[in-house]
Structure formats: C-alpha cells, structure tokens
C-alpha cells in the first residue's frame, strides 16, 4: 500500500477533512516486518514494511490531529541506536551498499546504455534547515557534470525546475521539476538531446492558477506559526515544518487542511519534514522516469540500464517503476532502515558522489580499452 486516506480535524471549528498520506515512511525499528520480495544478488527475499496508519474516525477531532502529528514526526528518520544494530545489519544485507556492489552493477550494465536519474535534496545536497540554502558542492557539481558527459542524466525533484537549475547550473542535464510535472531537456551540448524541443512535458499546466492562489493563501495563513515556510514549486507547494516547534505542528496541519478543504483537486502528501500539496493527477517521479526513457528512445528497449538515486518517499514511485520494468536499479540514500523498493543503498550525498565518480572512472577506463 502506498497511500492511505486519513481524516484530520480541528476540535475548535469542528471541521474535518480527508487527506491522502503517503505510506512510504521511515520504519521505526520495532515495527520492521519482513515480507517476501526479490532481493538483489539472490539473497533471502525481504522488504521492510511499516504497519499502515489506520483510517481515522470522522467524529471527535483531537485524536485525529494527534495521528497526523505522529505521521509528521515519523517523517524524520530515527537515529541509529545500539539495540537496532541487528535490524540494521539485516536491512543492509538485503539492501547492500551500491559502492560495495559496484562490480555487480557494472556486470549487469554490459551492452546496455546506462541512464542516470538523480533526486536533488538529500541526494546531491545535504538536508539543511533553510530550503533556499540547500547548495550543491562544487565537487558534487563536477561529479554530475562528468556523469552527464558519459550517460544521459536527469535531475528528478520535488523542487521548482528553475530553482533546482539555479543550484545545479548544468545545462547538459534533463530536469524534471515539481515531482516530475515539469520536464525540460538539455539546453546545450548534449549528444542525447532529442531534436530542438526543450520543454518536453507539463501535464499539470491547468493547475497553475490554482497552485498560485493556494500559495498566496497559505503564505498568509501560516504567518502565525513561527518557523513555517511555504515554498512555491510551480506545479506543487511545500509547507516546511523543520523549523517549527513540535508543539505547533498540529496548528500548522490544521491551517493547511483548512485551506485545502476548498480545493478537492489538490492532494496532500508528506516528505522529509514537509507537507506537499499537489494536483490529484496520476503523475509522479515514476511517470517522469518512464517519460524520459521514452524520450531517449528506450521505451521498450532491453538495451538500457536506468539507475535512479533518491532519498525520499516520492522517489519510491520511481523505484517501483524500475522493479516493475525489471530493469535497472533504485538506490536509496539513507543511513537508517526504511521500507523501500530500491535494490541498493548509499548512506549520504558524499557516498552518492563517490558512486558517480566511480562510474565515470569505470567508463573512462573501458573507453581506453577499446
Ligand atoms: O525531490 P527532492 O529534490 O528531494 O525535493 C523534495 C523537497 O526537498 C526540499 O525540502 C527538503 O530539503 C530541504 C533542504 O535541505 C529541507 O529543509 C526540508 O526539510 C526537506 O523536506 C524542498 O525544499 C521541497 O520543496 C521539496 O519538495
């Protein structure tokens, strides 16, 4: 199960509404339950699952907000503790490091075109308090530039495309902003570019005025909650609570749902200390991945090896597509066990950079051999 309808309500106003909560949450160690699924490298099949949040009752109210706040709380991964070492070891066994499995990954890529998909926040840049200061390091930028020189490369992010471009500043990449709802091809110097088209796909165009309106309303409404930040990601919005005192999370959740009650065509999901508001259309990072593979001419090809690296629940949509296609690998960036459809893991952006550099070195040496 990926989503759950949850009813949240305000005890004071008596207002209640149903929201969609993504169930791809970090797993608390005590709740980890193994369930069969193909494991990389043929090990015992396993996937870590979290018991579903139960649908909350419509009457009353306080309890429901508490459940929503619990869900907000679980969007920040727990710290690794010594008693969880066993769980961690087992998880790593079934989602091994992409660095330690590098040779196997390379073996599978034989005769195939690698296509790279990279999430931005928490993958190419470390998670920081201020979303406007989530800068990519020069070293990481160089690694991404090098990777794009050898393989078609896309950044797939929840951010507004223009904003992520301002961070990355590489015109040779594909960019899929707003959770894949705004896709643009490279503007220059890429041999994989398709024709002269640059803006390739914007399936949520009709939602622009609505998103703008909701952005303005939320800016106004959330002013009273210190630390809350509303970010306009063009085709979707983020309401950040990383800097909000925990005792005020419920208040913020109520504000958000009060605004959303007038917009049934928008849905609410959760990321890392962020409430994400987006159109109800069926389009996510998984669709963006498929769209880009198709644009590159690999819709039905066996000669392609897509590699998707991401840290967030929204990246799970892309990992799932890869599993369904039986093609390529998802790599989850995480230091702690989480329910995931990814095959491999990397602990943090630094390891992502090491992986990218290693891929470039391998490609260069294989070119030298031929
Ligand atoms: O798909 P992504 O590239 O991972 O974008 C998802 C959200 O990322 C950003 O928020 C996250 O990173 C911030 C900076 O490190 C951090 O402060 C915040 O708590 C995280 O949730 C971005 O600001 C959001 O708009 C994206 O939706």
UniProtKB/TrEMBL annotation:
Top EC class, one word: hydrolase
EC number, as in UniProt: 3.1.3.12
Region (Disordered): 67-88
Pathway(s) of this molecule: Glycan biosynthesis; trehalose biosynthesis
Biological processes, Gene Ontology terms: trehalose biosynthetic process
CDD domains hit by this protein: HAD_TPP
Entry keywords, A to Z: Hydrolase, Stress response
Catalysed reactions listed for this entry: alpha,alpha-trehalose 6-phosphate + H2O = alpha,alpha-trehalose + phosphate
MF (Gene Ontology): trehalose-phosphatase activity
Pfam family, one: Trehalose_PPase
Function as written in the Swiss-Prot or TrEMBL entry: Removes the phosphate from trehalose 6-phosphate to produce free trehalose. Trehalose accumulation in plant may improve abiotic stress tolerance.
Similarity annotation: Belongs to the trehalose phosphatase family.
Protein name, UniProt field: Trehalose 6-phosphate phosphatase
Organism in which the protein naturally occurs: Coffea arabica
High-level lineage: Eukaryota, Viridiplantae, Streptophyta, Embryophyta, Tracheophyta
